[in-house]
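Quick log. Single chain, no ligands specified.
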Amino acid sequence: MTTTTTRFEVHHDGVTIPVSRGGRGRPLILCPGLSSSQADLHELIVLLRRDHDVLTFDLRGHGLSSAAERYTFDAFLGDLIAVMADLPRLELLSPPVLVGYSLGADLAVHYAAEHPDSVAELVLIDGANPVPEPFLTEADLPEFRAMWESLAVWNEAAEGTVRQVLLGAQQILDLNIEVDAVRSRILDRYREIDCPISMIMSAAMASGGGDERAEWRDRNWRAGIERLVREHPHIVTTWVDADHRLVSTHAPEVARIIRSVKHPVIQHVSLTDRSSGRPA
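-> predicted structure:
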């Protein structure tokens, strides 16, 4: 099916955020993650447009978005809030499904917690994970600093293109450390959300590195979701046999899961019922 793509800009905090819209059906907002852009998610976007009116955008310093003075979690959350605040003028048919990938999943959880009734459903792809232990310790910093410094060479080559990432290696490292802290408190945010939630998670988030530390990261990743589902058993979780790049390497499978997930009926109970231990 061929659909027309419309493009417009949202201006916020001195940043120009490019937004794209295409497809037909149930509204869906797709929020990219750190070091990913609309261009990186192109195949997934095209597939989702078969069943959804899809809006997506580039976070500050990514893709066609402009550079910014701040690259903090709250700054990126402000970008999502600004895009969502622009939706009323678009006259969507219904409240949207909010899909977030990686950092975008964490942003989606915080947005939904702060703006109740603004989204119909959350789909969180390989992010927003309340892992029991931080991923980055002091011992990990040299490894990750070297990795992001090597990626900076690729980022420089992509500058000026739809796949550019304007953050430097230290800014990416600082943001990852901040996200670790955000995830240590994210269970409190889940408790504030009343809409259905789906998780699509990579089974080998650490890229199947094979070394002891990579295996620990994968165990920690799975333990975080197990922890989340114990507290929120109505969250629907699907594991994909892939690493963190699953939105690119397994786009058809991810799109199929988003289209097909069915949520159980949630029986809402009063605070009195919850404190008495009566099952929800």
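The domain at 6-133+185-275 is CATH 3.40.50.1820 (Rossmann fold).
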